[in-house]
Amino acid sequence: MRHKDNEKHRKIIAAATKVFAKKGFYKAKISDIAREAGVADGTIYIYFSHKDDILISLFEEKMKEVLDNMERQTSLETDPFAKIVRFAFLHLKLIEDNKDMAEIIQVELRQSDKFMKDYHNEKFAQYLDLIGDIIQEGKDKGLIREDIIPGIAKRAFFGALDEMSRFWVLSKRRTYDVETAARQISSYFINGIKT
Amino acid sequence: MRHKDNEKHRKIIAAATKVFAKKGFYKAKISDIAREAGVADGTIYIYFSHKDDILISLFEEKMKEVLDNMERQTSLETDPFAKIVRFAFLHLKLIEDNKDMAEIIQVELRQSDKFMKDYHNEKFAQYLDLIGDIIQEGKDKGLIREDIIPGIAKRAFFGALDEMSRFWVLSKRRTYDVETAARQISSYFINGIKT
Amino acid sequence: MRHKDNEKHRKIIAAATKVFAKKGFYKAKISDIAREAGVADGTIYIYFSHKDDILISLFEEKMKEVLDNMERQTSLETDPFAKIVRFAFLHLKLIEDNKDMAEIIQVELRQSDKFMKDYHNEKFAQYLDLIGDIIQEGKDKGLIREDIIPGIAKRAFFGALDEMSRFWVLSKRRTYDVETAARQISSYFINGIKT
Amino acid sequence: MRHKDNEKHRKIIAAATKVFAKKGFYKAKISDIAREAGVADGTIYIYFSHKDDILISLFEEKMKEVLDNMERQTSLETDPFAKIVRFAFLHLKLIEDNKDMAEIIQVELRQSDKFMKDYHNEKFAQYLDLIGDIIQEGKDKGLIREDIIPGIAKRAFFGALDEMSRFWVLSKRRTYDVETAARQISSYFINGIKT
DNA sequence: GATGAATGAGTATTCATTCAT
DNA sequence: CATGAATGAATACTCATTCAT
């Protein structure tokens, strides 16, 4: 009955996304998620072993999707700078289109013990490395200054985008439009590191 | 008995800083903090009305200190770009010198309901505005491009620094030294926005 | 699983009756009641929302039973004076047969905030009105003096019986037998108000 | 410094009367009483050894006064029935004039462990015996029926008055005036027991 | 697989009482 | 005597997790 399994699993993840975003991880009760998903409390433990697991699964599934998508999209461009511009736009667009998810990643995820302590955040490292690879490519092509350290630069660029999205998530409104913010931030970065 | 009051208050804040950083806000028990501070559980409630209050007090006191210090230090420079370099260095140095505090601000603070919901984070806005004011000054002096939007740029710069410090806090090691990171990040930013 | 529900509910009420009578409302711990009922502490909160709710439920259930019984029994007599004699006897007999319950109603019930403040004691008013109605009936039939005020008389009669039972409850012994006390008290009252 | 002692003692008793009546014994905090009395918390423990002691002292002092007064007043009458009428009136008048005190005696006193368990309520027994003595006197004079049992009759009469005052205390209003209630209740009783 | 009643460990907060000043 | 800061024992209630049906 594989089909049915996936169906329940999906419904629980969807319900948890809603409930975590609304109440926060610690305040969200398993029974809230169960009610929202239309299943019994105990059913959740057939698909997830702990409360933390729901949060982590939710994060991993979404991150896999995001990673795949971002990889595909940036590879459509050949110019490293064009890749950077596209990355900025897609990242901020993603936040805009997935407010609940964004709030969970920005705020709630950090409240899970298991996530913060036991979980080596590989997916996030891969996401950062997408930027690192673009920068390295730029350096190889002589487009980016030799003294730029990719390990710092990728974090600086990601941090700039992330702070923008944190602002949007917490202020519950978008002061600047996605395109403007993406263009500004990628322009600082590109001008900042180009040869 | 004013002296004694401040003494206890200080000891509790210091103990809480340690315990929150080690265990996280939700997992930290009042009795842990009391033991660490060398007082009885009940004594904590003479100085703070709730568990949340300890966290918020801790944040406000530190932020006031940081703000005052950062304001004083940046005003020693006259060139806006020199101010930016100094800001980056001081910010990262501060994180390095206050690991516990940094971890609390990065991670734990967001777990306090009262903090996230009822508290308008004025101190943080003022901190960001220190950067915003430098950028505006640079634009006024013709050193920074006219099209740069300070509301986005200040967040991009802060975010770049913050992501670097988050990396340090979470990885529990400093891969790059403070001076290198500060120089890199401020160079991206300055080159990125200068005329 | 309706049967099981009622079973647990009943067991908790029975345990609470015992514990409240022995220790008093404030001193009775939820865990005492749980142990006595043979359930976990948390189980109590499946059936009752607060500690006060146990006390109030306990009171209401017993009062309903008492009221129904008293109404049925007094209606078996046609003579108002015979009704009064029977009321006195049944009231004191009830106390004798339900020492724990009587002590709770006499003493503990008043320690519940919710009971004293938010709860309009309708059941007790109905109980008093059983006496009031008998007196009115007696007046209508010309058996009781015209100047008798039912609102005072019903309280005087109930108070006389209640003081007797308070004495029994607090002294932990019955100095006079139920029948003697009932006959004495109803005789004072009947002779006192008859035409 | 005897005079000063009595002064503080008196102030604390007065404050406690107010606070117990308003909040109830369990909810009244020592610090509430201290504030109301204008002394420090610790000062209360110079004059009383426990919280219960305040309640018990308060009760004893008032009862002594009441007993003395009631004894003096009833001895002014020679006719036992006139004594009964006067007793009823004085008792209800006392309640009316000392609402706070009455509420404490009716309700709060029973919340003190020490009072209910360790304290043999001698003063109250003496108060009841005032009625018992009057009834015995009436029997000796041939005014009251031989079959009347004073131990039951005194409680019936006191209970009638007490229920009336409980009604007044709890309903926070006086539905009938003191004189009417006293006349009614003593008339039931006198007619009920006279030869 | 699904249910949901039952479990019981876990903790912030209160407040009577003490005692150094 | 008076103070009031400090103490720390005491407890109702929550909720993740289990397991008999």
Q: How far apart are the termini of chain A?
A: 58 Å
Largest sheet, strands/sense/barrel of chain A: none
Please compute the radius of gyration of chain A using only Cα atoms. Answer: 19 Å
Order of helices and strands of chain A: HHHHHHHHHH
Q: What proportion strand of chain A?
A: under 5%
The largest chain-to-chain contact, stated as pair and per-chain residue counts, equals:
A-B, 38 and 39 residues
Shape of chain A: elongated
Specify the CATH class of the largest domain in chain A: Mainly Alpha
Number of helices of chain A: 10
CATH architecture of the largest domain in chain A: Orthogonal Bundle
What's the pLDDT, averaged over the residues of chain A?
89
Examine the coordinates and then state which fold CATH places here, giving the name of the CATH topology of the largest domain in chain A: Tetracycline Repressor, domain 2
Helix vs. strand class of chain A: mainly alpha
Q: Give the count of structural domains of chain A.
A: 2
pLDDT < 50 stretches of chain A: none
Give a count of the beta strands of chain A, DSSP E runs of length 2 or more.
0
Specify the CATH homologous superfamily of the largest domain in chain A: Tetracycline Repressor, domain 2
Task: Describe the overall structure.
The structure is a homotetramer of 195-residue chains. By secondary structure, chain A is mainly alpha-helical. Chain A folds into two domains: 1-49, Arc Repressor Mutant, subunit A; 57-193, Tetracycline Repressor, domain 2, CATH 1.10.357. Chain A contains ten helices and no strands. Chain A has helices at 2-23, 30-37, 41-47, 51-74, 80-97, 99-106, 113-118, 122-140, 150-171, 178-193. In chain A, helix 1 (2-23) packs across helix 4, helix 2 (30-37) crosses helix 3 and helix 5 (80-97) packs parallel to helix 9 (150-171). The longest helix of chain A is centred in the N-terminal third of the chain and has 24 residues, at 51-74. Chain A is elongated, with a radius of gyration of 19 Å. The mean pLDDT of chain A is 89. Chains in contact: A-B, C-D. Chain A binds chain B through residues 24, 26-27, 107, 110-111, 113, 116, 148-149, 151-153, 155-164, 166-167, 175-176, 180-181, 184-185, 187-193, and chain B through 24, 26-27, 107, 110-111, 113, 116, 148-149, 151-153, 155-164, 166-167, 170, 175-176, 180-181, 184-185, 187-193. Chain B binds a DNA duplex (21 and 21 nucleotides) through residues 1, 4-5, 8, 29-31, 34, 39-46, 50-51.
